[in-house]
Amino acid sequence: MAKSIRYGVCVENRGYPAALEVRKIYRLVQDAAAEARGLVRVIDESGEDYLYPGRFFVPIEVPREAARVFSRKSA
Fold first, then answer.
1. What are the structural domains, with CATH classification, of the chain?
2. What is the pTM of this model?
3. How would you write the pLDDT of the chain (75 residues) with one tens digit per residue?
């Protein structure tokens, strides 16, 4: 089953200043088990995913043209 990718802007990084950048857009992977615990699964620049408090992110709509750029791994 494919995971649904969506996007969110980081609005808080308390406790994770080296890992999360406020005002940066991140890919969020839908994870029902994590969300039930108030967490969100975030994909970083390396393509790895990590769990963070859901309140740290505000979901946003990204135009399809921009989503292609956000979905690529950084070089």
1. 5-71 (2.30.30.40)
2. 0.81
3. 345 678 999 999 999 999 999 999 999 999 999 999 999 999 987 889 999 999 999 999 888 888 777 766 554
